[in-house]
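Retro notes
What went well: the complex prediction finally ran end to end.
Inputs used:
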Amino acid sequence: MTSIQIDNEEPELPGEEIRRHRDFSKVQSRYRGHLLGVRRRKPYRLKNRFYFLFMLLLLLLLILLFS
Amino acid sequence: MHDHEEEEKYIYISQRDPRAFEWLYNRHHDRIFRYVYSKVRDTEQTADLTSEVFLKALMHIRSYEPKGIPFSAWLFRIAVNEVNMYFRRTGKVKHISVHEDLREEWNAQWDDPAWRRQLAEALGRLSPEDLQLIEWRFFDGIRFKEIAEMESSTEAAVKMKVYRILEVLKKQLETRDEYTNR
């Protein structure tokens, strides 16, 4: 259940105060951080996949060798 | 060039070059900031959530299709999701203000804090989807046409749904009044 409070009047926020927070560089730096995170994660996942395939092949080889 | 044509141009460029998104950011920032602030009532938290809204928009701008809902409605939908997630995560009290449309629609004791508390409780019991519709129309003052765009529905269907929920709310409060007056 959402806790709600109903106010009779809308809070006033001066336009100056809103404009003070209008800063696209903040969004841009977060976006760069997001892109870096994605780029960093990809090779790791790829490496994991190769490692898994390599182990699977090794296991199959061992089974073939001892059967 | 018309405003919406210019906006479409910047959307098209932003989908290929994120730097062009700054134009869209400057155009819509203040409206989104005001909306978030009306719920959160904390300037720093609002600034943070507003940044998050635009970050999400930038991350997903490639999936936006100008032929679908208007860009402002698409952005607003992201803002609504962010605000709702914030309240779910923090469990803080959500502030809503009575819009003049609701005062005209519903002649009630708006100046009585106890009555407003009862209404807040009744609103809190609504399903998140129904609460969202009532909030948009009667507390944020968003027109039916814009709600329909955000909901990818028709104006008539939204109107019918909103008035049905409002009737349920009124009935709930009337029964409560009768019960307390006994």
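What we learned: Chain A touches chain B at residues 1-11, 13, 15, 17-19, 21-22, 24, 26-28, 30-31, 34 (CB under 8 Å).
What to try next: split runs per interface for comparison.
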